[in-house]
Amino acid sequence: MSRANNDTYTRFAIIMHWSIALLILLNLSIGLYMDTFPHNSPRFNGILFYHASIGSLIFMLMAPRLLWRLMRTPPALPPSIPRWQAYSASVLHGTLYVLLFLVPLAGYVHRLAGAHPVSFFGLADMPVFIGRDEPLRLLTDTLHRGLVLTLALLMIAHIAAALKHKFIDRDGVAGRMGI
């Protein structure tokens, strides 16, 4: 694993960041596309297979990413960054981390509560730890959708802030993640 200098994240962190970001955008697109079909159609279920598998992958990738983050201090922000922006960035990043665990977890519980096991790309079935539970299925469907919307809005804010730092402030903050 490569070490970061004082100005950039490690290669591992950068690869994890961009891999997870692309998987989130892919899965968000798949989820929106999937919802254009009736939920009892074979097409919907075929697309759902990939949506659930990618969601499981995101969840699995977040574990080493979180572990890395807990063991390392991120590169310092430039002194020109106002305290309120540094605090806002910290809260935003923390919230994104929480959502990147909760969104797939809510989707997973939703599938299990509907008595639909989740397969990881057909390679292995994910553990089944609850049985059919219609009220829980409905609750986790609403929760999953709400969390996804929150995640999408916060990702837009994160991207907007990165672009501001890259093209307006030109302060090197976006360069820490390879932008």
Looking at this protein, list some descriptive labels:
single chain; 179 residues; mainly alpha; 2 strands; elongated
In short:
With 179 residues, the protein is mostly helical. Helices cover 68% and strands 2% of the residues.
- The residue ranges in which pLDDT falls below 50 over 5 or more consecutive positions are none
Find the structural class using helix and strand composition: mainly alpha
Q: Calculate the mean pLDDT score and round it.
A: 94
Largest sheet: 2 strands, antiparallel
Query: CA-to-CA gap between the ends?
Result: 20 Å
Tell me the radius of gyration: 18 Å
Describe the structure.
This protein has four helices and two strands; from the N terminus they run H-H-H-E-E-H. The chain is mostly helical and 179 residues long. The chain has one domain (11-177). Strands 1-2 form a two-stranded antiparallel sheet. Helix 1 packs antiparallel against helix 2 (42-71) and helix 2 (42-71) crosses helix 3 (83-113). The longest helix has 36 residues, at 134-169. The mean pLDDT is 94.
